[in-house]
Amino acid sequence: MSSEHDSQLLKGVLSLLLLHLISERESYGYELVQRLHQVGLTEILEGTVYPALARLEREGRVSARLVASNAGPARKYYRPTVAGRDALTAGTADWMSLAAVVGAQLARRLPAEPQEGA
Amino acid sequence: MSSEHDSQLLKGVLSLLLLHLISERESYGYELVQRLHQVGLTEILEGTVYPALARLEREGRVSARLVASNAGPARKYYRPTVAGRDALTAGTADWMSLAAVVGAQLARRLPAEPQEGA
DNA sequence: GCCAACTACTTGACATAGAATAGTAGTATA
DNA sequence: TATACTACTATTCTATGTCAAGTAGTTGGC
Asked: What is the pLDDT of residues A90-110, one digit of tens each?
């Protein structure tokens, strides 16, 4: 349902999600795209994820290591650095507090509509 | 607390909030900045809100009328158009569903931490 | 009547980050 | 060696928030 013209809404959230996912389990770009699709973000493309990972690496929030694959080119596995975990914690708090405000405002428009996103 | 380096997190959300606020009550730019500050978004500047309103107007999502003020220049009062209300409804649904996913993911990082953002 | 202060809106240069698209390269299989 | 799938890289475009400055109307002190 919906989630077709998010575009801007994803800004800033994607890097947070990526940090979270690799913090749950070391992962590589291609797989991260699939994991994002699995949790419902089906419109996120490789061309969005790879640059985001490169940004995170350049900023020192994730570290990467190449691991040979038996089904294609080597995979670049990412895991958060200490700075990455800090950023994730801070970013999560940021997002939570903004979401609380936004949610409180926008929720008024959906008086008692059942949500199935949980 | 926090809400200091949101920057990107606000993308797309601001126009939604503006549509919501003027849909609650017709309002003008200067006042909208103050209303945003009141609900907790204290870092939003005029230079952010006015261009956002101009964009919404250019896109036909809000209409504006000038009303003379007794304490300064004329105020430009905004209210949503039909397209604006549609955009608000669609955008709210979009945000809610994204927030559900993001919240479900990120919430795991804060097992039982009390939130005071409500 | 002029100047300061406050209200309110406008504008333009800038940075960030996601979208779109294409391209490169490794492995396997036929 | 050609095809298909996996996986990463590179380039360009665009939307939108930030920053900073500026315009203009009203009021009040002097």
From this structure: 999 999 999 999 999 988 776
- Which residues form the domain of A81? 7-107
Q: What CATH number does the domain containing B46 carry?
A: 1.10.10.10
Covered bases, chain C (protein CB within 7 Å): 6-13, 16-22, 25-28
User: Of all protein residues, which has its CA closest to the C1' atom of D19?
Assistant: B47
B50 CA vs D13 C1’ separation (Å): 24
What is the domain count for chain B?
Answer: 1
Q: What is the pLDDT of residues B88-117, one digit of tens each?
A: 999 999 999 999 999 999 887 765 544 454
Q: Is A40 on the interface with B (CB under 8 A)?
A: yes
Examine residue B57 and state whether it is found in any structural domain, yes or no: yes
pLDDT at B26: 94
Q: Is the pLDDT of residue B22 over 90?
A: yes
Q: Tell me if A1 and B97 make a contact (CB, 8 A cut-off).
A: yes
Indicate if CB(B11) is under 7 A from strand D.
yes
Checking if the pLDDT of B61 tops 50, the result is yes
SS3 track for chain B: CCCCCCHHHHCCHHHHHHHHHHHHCCEEHHHHHHHHHHCCCCCCCHHHHHHHHHHHHHCCCEEEEEECCCCCCCEEEEEECHHHHHHHHHHHHHHHHHHHHHHHHHHHHCCCCCCCCC
Residues of B in contact with A3 (CB under 8 A): 94, 97-98
